[in-house]
Specification:
The complex is a heterotrimer of chains A (379), B (349) and C (409). Chain A has 379 residues and is mainly alpha-helical. Chain A has helices spanning 2-18, 27-39, 45-56, 59-66, 70-91, 109-118, 130-139, 141-150, 164-186, 189-220, 225-230, 236-239, 241-254, 266-269, 279-304, 320-339, 348-375. Chain A contains 17 helices and no strands.
Chain lengths: 379, 349, 409
């Protein structure tokens, strides 16, 4: 019996070992750990540690859990909330969060807010549809987090697919449905208006967004991120600037950021679909838009900014690609954060007009550019 | 409130709870009175309340702090209670301003409620209005209360020792002189140097008014009988007077009458612009009814409703029924003279 | 456009019964029968002040708005009947504390009108400076509120940053950031030194410089223009009919400013223009006030340059030039002659009317009627909302700068 189990573990280990990250920087560290562990007289300990290290450094898992997956996502969430508030504050002649921890210039402010939300009462009000009201904020994470499994960073990839770009777009398109359902489950008039606005905005940005992405797929003649990134010795932003612009604005609309913060307009309809949420449930729905932004920014980086292309540092080995991808993504998001303090909010009819008139027209022109470049032999 | 403080301070996760709550006190957007101007200053770029982790945030469900900005009226007291109940526990209340403490300058008003009677208050900030520094200090003290369980007051009470050998200071008596039987004349004529006024008076005398008097530069008082008010108003509208600036009622219980005044003026005619006509009629107190002018002058509509609230005069033709400005539980017809407010007590009496 | 209706029975939500609506139940039922619904904006709503608007909406279009004011009704008119004339000075400036000097001035002028007091020239100039500082402060406050209602938080911070200069000027002049109670019957409380006036003179340039960055960021911002242009239009006829006041009246094309029509203090001695716009929409209501700030700065500079010397308190009140220490003796006992005294003053948001009715014997007012601009333009505000979209409610609200404590008194 035990032999079978050990054989099974050996088999798994061989699978894991066949697809390990190759990072020269941490090789001596691993060797040191193994050396220390070997001296401890506990049976099977060294095998266990070996197994754990193999699991962590197994490429698919590393891509999903560490980089550019969940760990980076968590750090990014803490960072972006702080960065956004700090940047806004700097533009607005003030300081922003500071006193919570001075040496880091208040960088853990979002952590304090999160802890406060965690220990606050989560109210489910009488008229709400109780099961959906509680489930939906968690269900909404599925379409947000699934694309991370498909987006590769060099050799580090969760699920390798030649249709990764298309899949990511499909998952992103599912998110508004959860938001609309959240508004429905809240059963409040403001949530109702917010849901209707979200649905209208969805219609407004979705077509230009998909057309802009498709134009890039035509341009590179593939939806495979490897081919896309390989071909980008000129960044896609220069090859097809119209698609770049349309994608950027559609990103603002999709993540409901100013000037298109229409479904969650707090001054008009009091956070729209999220009006009744409190405590940790509100914490969950609040980060939804930020996570969506992260996924879209990853896609944006791959399509337009050359993905993980960057200066190769041999010491980092396989870690090069995830690091470059993460850096580019976070720079993109930080630039987007600046827009927030610059613009007022459009009205819903104006936003839809923008979506259906020149955004759609630009995306069509972008599609034409993509087809022409792709037909002419591509890059 | 102790219940919430206990929740924060108990359990194995107490340090985490108190740290998180301390640095994330988000005041709800509940503006109750004029101290809101200083609150806005405290969270704007001059003082920046966000430094200490306080972020003024949308609605009740997502916040944990109410800053009561000054006076709480009877109507607002309900809102305060509803908002407080909508907020998730643990929640805290800071009251800023003298009005929230004990009424401030409005201490004897009929429409004021002490916030501490409505919700449990954690910290009071005095001042009228308190400066932004004082408000931020209040938030810091609430943070301190979350950390140590006790907020520090900046008020110190010294023991005053009475000096011997000095004669006691003579305290002032009541400075008020109130006439026992006041006689009210709202159209006392005055001599002013105003040529156009004379011409205008001649024109107005043709109308079916009882008397015309110049009561000051650019001010003319027209006395009309209550049933002629509407006709006169129609004539005045033809002359170019197009809006009502104020509807006023003076209660004269001694003569058992209400004086209902409409201050009518003009925007469209250049020469009539500075003129304010005081068209007034007298109605008996026990049968206080007068024709409404709100269909002729829509600008008089809300002020007629207000006077209906204040004095119980019914304006025939104004569709609004019920209370407009006052809360359902405000005393009936508070501006009538028989409704007395509490007077100050002078020690010297 | 053809309307498609589905015959589904809709019941009014239960919560509307428990929220103390001032409207009859039949009205609510009628609304829901007509496939419309009611939205309550305020008093606890991120986009409203201390009032409730009962908005009747069909789809996204506002059909009717019923105001529910009185959330900050603090009974100033009744309390004034129990206080001495001078004790009422702090009381009457509480409705709008950012505009305290103008409200204060109107009340004091009513007393002076009754008592025939002559105010010295220097005091008149000081009052003008104070009133204009408060006017700038209020316009900036309203601009900030408008910005935050449009979701533009930077547009909220800049005017409040500039307002700090105004507050600092008021502190230097009067000693208080907001509620100064500096204007008293017969003059002002005390003289203001030349250094302070020079400081304010240079502060006007600092304000102007910072206003330019506000202009770049907010006033000319395309999103702001898109939100405010052609929204909430009040035509000239409507504005007159509904008795709109102040900058909102001038935005509809009526050339009416109390400071020109019936000049008081030093307004007839300085050179300035009435700001008028023709469109009557939210953007012109906003622009009129922006330009009024420039005019106010001009008035302040002229006043400081031309201020005459001499006393700051009338001889009829006090022989010396300093009333400090004998304030109560000189002013507590003032009695107005019998009659009614009405003054019209141009506060920042429009004309404020004080009517004092005196019986000629008491040293408390028999009746004090205060009509503030907010209360006067409320009707026009409600009318301008009809037919606009729900999202425009905040834009129009902000463009009127409606301040409920001022309206409710």
């Amino acid at each position: 019996m035990i032999e079978v189990l050990i054989d099974l573990i050996r088999y798994f280990l061989s699978i894991l070992k066949s697809n390990q990250l190759d990072i020269p920087l941490i090789k001596p560290i691993i060797a040191l750990i193994m050396k220390i562990v070997a001296q401890i007289p506990i049976p099977y300990l060294s095998n266990l540690v070996d197994f754990i290290l193999a699991v962590i450094l197994w490429r698919p898992l590393f891509a999903v859990v560490v980089m550019p997956g969940l760990t980076v996502l968590m750090i990014y969430l803490l960072y972006i909330v702080w960065f956004e508030r700090k940047l806004t504050a700097r533009i607005q002649w003030r300081v922003g969060p500071l006193e919570v921890y001075r040496p880091l210039r208040g960088a853990i402010q979002a952590l304090a807010d999160g802890i406060r939300y965690l220990f606050q009462e989560a109210i489910v009000h009488k008229d709400a549809h109780r099961p959906y009201f509680v489930q939906l904020p968690i269900l909404a994470f599925i379409p947000v987090l699934l694309p991370i499994a498909f987006i590769p960073a060099g050799n580090v990839v969760g699920i390798k697919s030649p249709y990764a770009v298309q899949l990511t777009i499909a998952f992103i398109s599912l998110i508004p449905i959860t938001v609309i359902a959240i508004g429905w489950a809240s059963n409040s008039r403001f949530a109702f208006i917010g849901s209707v606005r979200e649905a209208l905005m969805y219609v407004a940005y979705e077509i230009p967004f998909i057309v802009a992405a498709i134009s890039m797929i035509f341009l590179y003649k593939s939806g495979d991120p490897y081919i896309i990134v390989e071909n980008q010795w000129i960044p896609g932003a220069i090859l097809n600037p119209l698609a770049f612009l349309v994608f950027l604005i559609a990103m603002l609309m999709a993540t409901s950021r100013l000037p298109f913060e229409i479904p969650e307009a707090d001054q008009e309809i009091a956070f729209g679909p999220f009006v009744e949420y409190s405590g940790i449930l509100f914490g969950l729905v609040m980060v939804l838009a930020y996570e969506k932004l992260y996924v879209m920014a990853l896609l944006f980086t791959i399509l337009f900014l050359g993905g993980w292309n960057g200066i190769y540092i041999s010491l980092l080995g396989d870690l090069n690609a995830p690091i470059w991808l993460t850096i580019k993504t976070i720079v993109v998001i930080s630039i987007i954060a600046m827009v927030r303090s610059m613009y007022a909010r459009y009205r819903i009819d104006q936003a839809i007009r923008i979506g259906f008139s020149w955004l759609l027209a630009f995306s069509m022109v972008a599609l034409a550019i993509g087809v022409v470049i792709g037909y002419e032999g591509g890059i | 409130m102790d219940e919430f403080l206990n929740f924060i301070k108990s359990g194995k996760l107490a340090p985490l709870k108190s740290w998180g709550t301390k640095w994330s006190l988000w005041p709800v957007h509940l503006v109750t009175a004029c101290c809101g101007a200083e609150l806005a200053h405290a969270f704007a770029c001059g003082y920046d309340g966000e430094r200490i982790g306080a972020l003024n945030y949308g609605i009740a469900r997502q916040t944990n702090l109410i800053i009561v900005e000054g006076a709480i009226t009877r109507k607002m007291a309900r809102v305060l209670k509803i908002t407080w109940e909508q907020m998730p526990d643990p929640k805290f209340v800071i009251v800023m301003g003298a009005c929230g403490l004990n009424g401030g300058v409005f201490w004897n008003g009929y429409n004021l409620v002490r916030p501490s009677e409505v919700v449990p208050v954690d910290f009071f900030i005095p001042g009228c209005p308190p400066t932004p520094e004082a408000l931020l200090r209040g938030i810091r003290q609430l943070q301190k209360k979350l950390e140590t369980g006790e907020a520090e007051s900046s008020a110190y009470f010294y023991d005053l020792r009475l000096e011997k050998g000095k004669p006691p200071r003579r305290l002032p008596g009541v400075p008020k002189k109130i006439s026992a039987a006041p006689s009210i004349v709202v159209n006392r004529p005055r001599k002013v140097d105003w040529a156009f006024g004379g011409e205008l008076c001649e024109k107005l005398k043709v109308l079916r008014v009882e008397s015309v008097a110049i009561t000051g530069k650019n001010r003319i008082a027209l006395k009309v009988s209550a049933d002629k008010l509407r006709e006169v108003a129609i004539e005045l509208k033809k002359m170019g007077f197009d809006h009502v600036k104020s509807v006023n009622v003076v209660d004269v219980p001694g003569e058992n009458k209400f004086i209902v005044e409409y201050h009518i003026s003009s925007y469209s005619s250049k020469e009539l612009m500075p003129v304010i006509l005081n068209v007034f009629a007298e109605v008996p107190r026990n049968e206080a009814k007068i024709d409404s002018l709100s269909d002729l002058f829509p600008s008089a509509d809300y002020m007629e409703r207000e006077m209906q609230d204040f004095f119980g005069i019914s304006f025939k033709g104004n569709p609004w029924k019920g209370k407009f400005l006052l809360a359902p539980d405000t005393p009936e017809f508070p501006l009538r003279k028989e409704f007395k407010l509490q007077e100050e007590i002078y020690v010297g009496d | 456009m053809k309307e498609i209706a589905i015959d589904v029975p809709v019941e009014p939500p239960k919560e509307l019964e428990s929220l103390f609506l001032p409207i009859p139940k039949e009205y609510v039922e009628e609304v829901y029968r007509n496939d419309e619904f009611l939205i309550l904006v305020g008093p606890q709503h991120p986009g409203s002040g201390h009032m409730r608007l009962i908005v009747r909406v069909k789809g996204d279009v506002i059909q009717e708005v019923i105001p529910d004011p009185g959330y900050v009704h603090r009974a100033i008119e009744k309390i004034a009947e129990t206080r001495l004339y001078v004790q009422n000075i702090p009381l009457v400036e509480r409705p709008a504390i950012m505009d305290s000097a103008n409200l204060n001035l109107g009340y004091v002028r009513a007393i002076e009108d009754g008592m025939d007091l002559e105010v010295p020239e220097r005091a008149k100039y000081l009052r003008t400076i104070l009133a204009e500082l408060c006017r700038i402060g209020t316009h900036l406050y309203d601009a900030a509120i408008l910005s935050v209602f449009l979701g533009h938080t930077t547009g909220f911070m800049y005017p409040f940053g500039i307002r700090e200069l105004i507050c600092e000027s008021l502190v230097k002049m009067t000693g208080a950031r907001f509620t100064s109670s500096f204007i008293i019957p017969g003059g002002v409380r005390r003289d203001v030194s030349k250094e302070i006036l020079d400081w304010i003179y240079s502060a006007t340039f600092a304000i102007e410089k910072r206003l330019r960055s506000f202009e770049r960021l907010f006033i000319k911002n395309p999103t702001v223009v898109a939100r405010l242009k052609d929204v909430g239009v009040l035509s000239k006829k409507e504005a007159i009919e509904f008795g709109v006041v102040g900058p909102f009246l001038r935005a509809s094309g009526v050339e009416y400013d109390v400071r020109k029509v019936e000049p008081y203090e030093a307004y007839d001695k300085v050179d300035w223009d009435i700001v008028v716009a023709d469109d009557g929409d939210s953007y012109s209501r906003f622009l009129v006030r922006v330009n009024e700030v420039a005019q106010s700065l001009k008035i302040i500079r002229q006043c400081i340059a031309e201020i005459p010397g001499g006393k700051v308190i009338s001889d009829q009140i006090c022989e010396g030039n300093d009333i400090r220490g004998e304030f109560f003796e000189k002013l507590a006992g003032i009695v107005l002659p019998a009659g009614e005294f009405t003054t019209l003053t141009e506060a920042a948001r429009g004309s404020v009317i004080y009517t004092i009715v005196s019986d000629g014997e008491s040293n408390v007012p028999y009746r004090l009627r205060v009509v503030t601009p907010g209360w006067l333009y409320l009707r026009g505000f409600m009318e301008s909302l009809k037919g606009e979209r729900l999202a425009d409610l905040q834009a129009i609200y902000g463009s009127f700068g409606y301040f409920p404590p001022e309206a409710d008194r």
